[in-house]
Amino acid sequence: MPGDVIGLVGPLGAGKTQLVKGIAAGLGVTEERRVSSPTFVLVNEYDGRLHLWHVDVYRLANVRELDAIGFDEMVASGGVVVVEWADRAAALLPTATIWMELTPEGESRRRIVARTADAAIAERCRGLDAPRREP
To answer: Which pTM was predicted?
Structure first.
């Protein structure tokens, strides 16, 4: 939804960037193949139905560097902001952040736990936590 901030948490190789590729596809980013980790550039942007800001805070020396890259403007833009390694900048993320913790469970399976402190977002996401059955 416009204005959503999604904080991704999980170890290296948990699939955070892969999840962002799925979010990009859902937002209508036509070349989701070009979605890549912004680890060295800090922010990637993609145009779709909504603008997607893909932020990686892993390499930030100080979380206050988010101010320098215009994080508040990204959040206020009406697009969707996805932050990898969000736990490193938790104090600066909005209260309404959708937190998604990814845990690898083998080579090709991931467990994703989503939570938020925002009641309206929680209601909107109700049912997403139901276990998915294998085909």
So the answer is: 0.85
Q: How far is CA 110 from CA 7, 13, 31, 56, 82, in A?
A: 16, 10, 24, 20, 18
Nearest of 79, 78, 59 to residue 69 by alpha carbon: 59
Residues 17, 36: contact at Cβ < 8 Å?
Answer: yes
What is the residue extent of each domain of the chain? Answer: 5-124
CATH ID of 5-124, from 3.40.50.1820, 3.40.50.300, 3.30.565.10, 3.55.50.30: 3.40.50.300
108 alpha carbon, distance to own chain's centre: 20
Q: How far apart, in whole angstroms, are the C-alpha atoms of residue 133 and residue 20? A: 22
For 45-54, letters b (16+ CB in 10 Å) and e give ebebebbbbb
Q: What's the pLDDT tens digit per position in 18-76?
A: 999 999 999 999 876 678 887 767 899 999 999 999 999 888 888 778 888 899 999 99
